[in-house]
Design a protein that fits this description.
heterodimer; A: 290 residues; mainly alpha; two-stranded antiparallel ribbon; 12 helices; 72% helix; globular; B: 319 residues; 15 helices; 75% helix
Chain lengths: 290, 319
């Protein structure tokens, strides 16, 4: 009995950690897709860049973990601005196929670039000393790094939700997601809003990618390899929603961890089947608007 | 005015001299490049794959990221048959076509209920599911190592697949020609016209009473059949199938090849595929990494500057 309980706690814990990473990476994708109607397959590139930047800052420049993590997010956010201005903006409201091609092209470029600079091997993340080892919470031990990851994710999620609900910027984002034309008519500068949101989403993705480097291993094929996960979170959660992807990430994170633990011989098969079932039931996702 | 329109419309059905060009080139290729026939056979089979993608993408306007599922299913069907004692190539092709078509029909029933991003997602998920299934069923597919030990019998019992790819080349050429002819008839039939109508304006097609979802499902299945045949051709001529046949990269690159040539014009595949594959053959053996860099760059450039691909540029130039 206690063994079962232990397994459940373990699946819940690791699943939660995985869900946090998935959510941090995917939430920006959900908002940009919902707001601009842009199929951005290259979103994972920013998460991958986050992983590379974080390990690079720490290993080669000796930056401590936390400052390196924030520097990573800021660097990715800034780097995403010219990309949005020069490439993405041309295709807003355009042909889906063009968007798919452009972002696939960006994935290929990023994959080749990462192989060129860092080589084909995985980049391991060395957590700082204060995060290695385990935390004792009385009845059992939890790995310190993943506990930190969950807390960090929870704090960011709260900040994000509060920001979206309580600030003027958040109100503008919601307005643009709800009705773009109306938002433009009442004088919201949607072009600038797109840019800011895109940068914010990319920064969050880099943050998530860096933080979750030990869950989603950093290698050149990252953007393509985990693309299905990010898209599933967004599609199941519902486009343009902030909460939907969180529920979807929780579902995906815990189910994936559970299935891989209980039925390793089926791998990720159930996750995909579950996704199909949910999308059949609700084609616009759990929290998508009809 | 009306008569010119009708005339232009009717003229599109007729075979023009230009249409014979790719086939003459392919036939000439057999004599001109005898040492590249193995690559040539692969190019021909991949043209069919791109053509099948063009049917759903260019004509029905269904953007899919999972077309490799049908290609790989066809390849594995033919491959598994040949590896388990049934190496007859033509029945192998038919079995592959049936298997891929069945997958297309069943997945289409699910996937085509939606549009846009959700559709894109679901095609991706279906392909990933098939790839995962093939990976896990390694006792029959060979898993990561690929399917080995295929033995393909001679065609009709007497045309042996030789080392230089002569038989393979002609075999692919004839099969692809037949499939192209079929695709051309479909595209110019009333059914094909109604697909273009669905792509351009779904609401109006609903309004005039066209059975939109059934037509979309039909073309999706037909396209899956052609993709399956293409995969089977490659499996039979190279005698090898691997998990990469089902990968997302495969689904992506077929779109690229199609875009390079031009979407929705049936001949885009004949330009884009040879260009892509010959360039890949030349450059990627040195450094596959750089190859993807240049392809990625090319995709970005095409989207930004040359929508419509090379044939689109040609049209613009002619006007």
């Amino acid at each position: 009995m206690s063994e079962t309980l232990s397994a459940i706690i373990s699946i819940g814990f690791h699943g939660l950690a995985f869900a946090m990473v998935l959510y941090l990476i995917s939430v920006g994708l959900s908002v940009t897709m919902g707001m601009m109607g842009f199929v951005n397959l290259a979103h994972g590139v920013f998460a991958m860049a986050g992983g590379y930047l974080l390990t690079g800052f720490m290993r080669h420049f000796g930056v401590p973990f936390l400052p390196a993590l924030f520097a990573t997010a800021v660097a990715a956010a800034l780097a995403s601005i010219p990309i949005e201005r020069l490439l993405y903006r041309r295709l807003y409201g355009g042909d889906e196929l063009d968007q798919v091609l452009l972002t696939m092209g960006l994935i290929f470029i990023a994959t080749a670039g990462a192989t060129y600079i860092w080589g084909p091997v995985q980049q391991p993340l060395q957590p700082p000393a204060w995060l290695s080892g385990e935390i004792n919470v009385g009845f059992r031990h939890f790995p310190a790094y993943r506990s930190f990851l969950i807390l960090c994710g929870a704090a960011l999620v709260t900040a994000l939700w509060l920001g979206l609900e309580r600030t003027a910027f958040g109100a503008r984002v919601r307005a643009a997601v709800d009705n773009l034309r109306m938002a433009q008519s009442v004088g919201i500068n949607t072009s600038r809003l797109f840019m800011t949101t895109f940068a914010l989403g990319s920064g969050l993705a880099a943050f998530g990618g860096g933080l979750g480097a030990d869950l989603l291993a950093i290698s050149p094929s990252y953007a393509l390899q985990y693309l299905a996960y990010f898209l599933i979170v967004v599609a199941v959660g519902g486009l343009g929603s902030i909460r939907g992807p969180f529920v979807a990430a929780l579902l995906l994170g815990i189910a994936d961890t559970g299935f891989k633990y209980l039925l390793p011989e089926f791998g990720a098969f159930f996750i995909y089947a579950l996704t199909m079932a949910i999308l059949l039931w609700r084609p616009r996702g759990l929290f998508g608007r009809a | 005015m009306t008569s010119r329109l009708v005339d232009g419309f009717a003229r599109r059905h007729r075979y023009s001299v230009l249409e014979a060009l790719p086939w003459l080139a392919a036939f000439a290729g057999y004599f001109v490049f005898p040492s590249y026939l193995a690559l040539g056979a692969q190019i021909l089979a991949t043209i069919l794959f791109a053509l099948s993608a063009d049917l759903v993408l260019g004509y029905a306007g269904i953007v899919t990221l999972g077309h490799a599922a049908f290609f790989g299913t066809g390849a594995y069907t033919a491959g598994i048959l040949a590896a388990n004692g049934w190496g007859e190539p033509i029945t192998g092709l038919l079995a592959a076509a049936a298997a891929a078509g069945l997958l297309g029909l069943v997945s289409g029933l699910v996937v085509l209920r939606t549009t846009g991003l959700s559709l894109l997602m679901q095609t991706l998920v279906v392909a990933t599911m098939v790839a995962e299934a093939a990976n896990k069923a390694s006792f029959i597919t060979g898993g990561d190592d690929g399917l080995q030990g295929m033995e393909v019998w001679p065609i009709f019992g007497w045309l042996r697949f030789d080392l230089f790819g002569r038989t393979a080349y002609l075999y692919c050429l004839i099969v692809v020609l037949l499939c192209w002819w079929m695709a051309r008839r479909i595209v110019h039939s009333p059914f094909g016209r109604s697909l273009t109508g669905i792509r351009e304006n779904v609401r109006r097609m609903h309004a005039i009473g066209a059975p939109v979802s059934r037509r979309r499902l039909m073309i999706y299945t037909i396209s899956a059949v052609l993709a399956g045949i293409s995969g089977a051709l490659i499996a039979q001529t190279t005698q090898f199938v691997s998990l990469s046949f089902l990968s997302l990269e495969r689904s992506g690159t077929v779109l690229i090849m199609l875009i390079i040539g031009g979407v929705g014009r049936l001949y885009g595949a004949f330009i884009g595929v040879p260009l892509y594959m010959i360039a890949q053959d030349r450059f990627s053996t040195v450094q596959p990494v750089y190859w993807y860099f240049w392809i990625g760059l090319l995709m970005v450039v095409i989207v930004v500057f040359a929508r419509g691909g090379l044939l689109g540029l040609f049209d613009r130039f002619r006007r």
